[in-house]
Amino acid sequence: MQIAIIGSGQLARMLALAGWPQGFSFSFLAEPHENTQSVDGLGQVVIRTNNLTGIQLFQALGEPDVVTVEREHVDTVLLNTLKPFCAVYPDPNAIEVCQHRGREKQFLNNLGIHTAPFRLATTLEQISSAAATLSFPVFVKTCEEGYDGLGQWVIRNNLDLNNLLDYLLRQNANLPELVIEGAVNFDRELSLIAVRNSKGECAFYTLTENLHKDGILLSSIAPAKVSEALQDKAEAIADKLLNAWRYVGVIAIELFQVGENLVVNELAPRVHNSGHWTQAASISSQFSNHLRAISGLGLGTTKTTDIVGMVNLLGTKASKDIVSMDNVQLHLYNKAIRPGRKVGHLNLIDSNRAVLESQVNTIREQLYQA
Ligand code: AMP
Fold first, then answer.
1. Global pTM?
2. CB 323 within 8 A of CB 330
3. Residue 184 alpha carbon, nearest atom of ligand 1
4. 3 state DSSP class of 62
5. Which of the four CATH numbers 3.40.50.1970, 3.30.70.3550, 3.30.465.10, 3.30.1490.20 does domain 117-182 have?
6. Nearest CA to ligand 1 atom 7
7. b/e for 206-217, b at 16 or more Cβ within 10 A?
């Protein structure tokens, strides 16, 4: 089976690395200036040109059986033009909802799923009035294209608000559409990786606890130390979403835990950094299960018996001592090191939670003093 992936970064790389042993072959669609080193040697890379018709793109990608994505910021109009020729998973409609924070929150709320309280704003007056209604602190985020903490401001008081309004006024461009969110006083940041195949079968990995710095994921531990009831609540949220969309593939749901309740922060209609630990933990990683789902296979088990950790390599390599540890699995993305750039990650596994947590913390501190 031939699979085309929109994008050529590390997620495309890890999908292809999981798919090669299963006999799949791959092609990748890259933007004109996109760095494609991560997928070197893993399949044909097609550079996108303007005004491609569906049939032209289908042929350029090697007439794939299925097209999928490694990121949500893709041209969904272009994706829809591929539909007469091959399956496109997940459906572009679901991707389109996830491209816009406002649309996404509205969609979740319509399904009865909780998010932070929010208002949309396209003028400076609307930002001020949203901040007044929601009360400080508030998070101001661009509705589109923001990720990993970019296009995002935390506003704690009137001084912060005035500084942001001045900054936005000084930009000589139209104000981007913004979402203003009330702050959620969370106990933990969690995520759930879920998957649904075309027969409607769903599977869920165990909740993952994530540690971020400046909006960027530093490390994860799974299973998160939460009650079974909370895992059930997270799976119920995922089930609702997946079935509402008749979704096919992996979705990541980023959550805030507030006591025994869950608030959805963000959705990613794709494999996700907070699910990388599944490479070390299960018969089917998130990458393998995404491929099983989109190729019409039954899903692989998502069960984990050990405690698993993941530490991102952000603008740094791991030392020889770290990668020599007998429970550490190194993944590199074939990218040059630049400050802050995700160039790889480490997965760690142990039967003892305290040992694993301490090892993850020590490695994270060695790498980032954080
Ligand atoms: P995001 O880009 O939406 O994933 O936000 C990046 C990080 O900012 C999250 O991982 C949280 O740590 C924090 N954050 C974002 N929105 C909120 C909110 N409404 N309340 C509290 N913390 C938030």
1. 0.96
2. yes
3. 20
4. coil
5. 3.30.1490.20
6. 215
7. bbbbbbeeeeeb
- Delimit the CATH 3.30.1490.20 region(s) of the chain: 117-182
Residue nearest atom 19 of ligand 1, based on CA coordinates: 183
Angle at 228 between CA 227 and CA 233, to 5 degrees: 100
Every domain range in the chain assigned CATH 3.30.470.20: 188-368
pLDDT tens for each residue of 59-107: 999 999 999 999 999 999 999 999 999 999 999 999 999 999 999 999 9
Q: Which CATH class is domain 188-368?
A: alpha beta
Architecture of domain 2-88: 3-Layer(aba) Sandwich (3.40)
With tokens 């009330």, the residue in question is 182
Given a contact cutoff of 8 angstroms between Cβ atoms, the answer to whether 105 and 40 are in contact is no
Which strand (E) or helix (H) includes residue 356?
A: helix 353-368
What is the amino acid identity at position 320? K
Give the tokens for residue 184.
């959620």
Contact 71, 9 (CB under 8 A): yes
User: Among 99, 119, 136, 139, which residue has the most ligand 1 atoms within 8 Å of its CB, making it the best to mutate?
Assistant: 139
Pocket lining for ligand 1, CB < 6 angstroms: 116, 139, 149, 152, 181, 183-184, 189, 212, 215, 254, 265-266
Residue 140 CA to ligand 1 center (angstroms) comes to 10
Instruction: Count Cβ atoms below 10 Å from residue 285 Cβ, excluding itself.
Output: 27
Q: What residue type is 32 in one-letter code? A: P
Q: Which amino acid is at 37?
A: Q
Length of the chain: 370
What confidence tens digit (pLDDT) does each residue in 112-154 have?
Answer: 999 999 999 999 999 999 999 999 999 999 999 765 555 789 9
